[in-house]
């Protein structure tokens, strides 16, 4: 099973920044109950990650506790209990989302609304233990008619999938801790990343780093 990384954090930040803009449409969606389920699952996802982030902030500037109470990923120390809670939530959500995709295909705007499709994206973004499933969902999203998925969601998942496949990300959405700074993981054509980000409605990379620092603080040097 693949280890979770800083993607735990950056996808959560994406949810915080975007969800307010992903309101349900004025008209009725085709699957309102499914929409509500997806939103409930995101609430559970974000609670688990919120607890993890809170524990990180509590331990900031202190020596990590011993006795196997922490785990370390990409230079970041996590509280083990909170980390395992996130892992469990991801496993449950991935299993359920796979069932939904088998039945409906990718949950589209028409099917579950903008907030519903955004919620489904967050769940697959956190399905790191199943990279093949993430690729499947990305391919489904890319084949949808315009307006049936959210372009920034597709950008985030594209980066996640490319990195999992050993390639470089395109949009610079995935970060890691390097020498006390947030740095994008391997990035294709860095000189034009802000142009690509603008095309899908994302802020310039420098602004995104400021938001990471605002939400999570600056990472510790290794």
Structure description:
The structure is a single chain. With 222 residues, the protein is mainly alpha-helical. It has a domain at 7-148. It has 8 helices and 4 strands, in the order ααββααααββαα. The protein has helices at 7-18, 32-58, 80-104, 109-125, 131-142, 151-164, 193-199, 205-216; strands at residues 70-73, 76-79, 175-178, 181-184. Strands 1-2 form a two-stranded antiparallel ribbon. A two-stranded antiparallel ribbon has the order 3-4. Strand 1 (70-73) and strand 2 (76-79) form a beta hairpin. Helix 2 (32-58) packs antiparallel against helix 3, helix 2 runs parallel beside helix 4 and helix 5 packs antiparallel against helix 6 (151-164).
- The 3D shape can be described as globular
> How large is the count of helical segments?
8
Low-confidence stretches: 1-6
Query: Radius of gyration, Cα only, in angstroms?
Result: 17 Å
Q: What gap, in angstroms, lies between the N and C termini?
A: 25 Å
Q: What series of H and E elements makes up the topology?
A: HHEEHHHHEEHH
Say how many strands there are: 4
């Amino acid at each position: 099973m693949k280890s979770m990384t800083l993607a735990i954090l950056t996808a959560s930040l994406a949810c915080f920044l975007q969800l307010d803009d992903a309101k349900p449409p004025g008209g009725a969606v085709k699957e309102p109950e499914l929409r509500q389920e997806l939103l409930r699952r995101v609430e559970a996802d974000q609670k688990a990650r919120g607890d993890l982030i809170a524990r990180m902030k509590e331990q900031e500037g202190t020596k990590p506790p011993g006795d196997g109470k922490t785990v370390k990923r990409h230079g970041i120390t996590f509280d083990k209990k909170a980390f395992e809670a996130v892992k469990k939530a991801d496993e449950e959500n991935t299993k359920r989302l796979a069932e939904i995709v088998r039945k409906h295909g990718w949950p589209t705007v028409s099917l579950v609304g903008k907030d519903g499709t955004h919620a489904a994206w967050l769940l697959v973004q956190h399905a790191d233990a199943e990279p093949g499933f993430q690729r499947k969902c990305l391919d489904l999203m890319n084949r949808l008619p315009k307006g049936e998925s959210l372009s920034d969601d597709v950008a985030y998942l594209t980066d996640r999938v490319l990195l999992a496949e050993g390639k470089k990300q395109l949009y610079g959405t995935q970060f890691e801790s390097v020498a006390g700074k947030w740095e994008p993981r391997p990035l294709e054509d860095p000189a034009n990343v802000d142009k690509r980000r603008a095309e899908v409605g994302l802020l310039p990379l420098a602004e995104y780093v400021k938001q990471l620092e605002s939400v999570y603080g600056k990472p510790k040097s290794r």
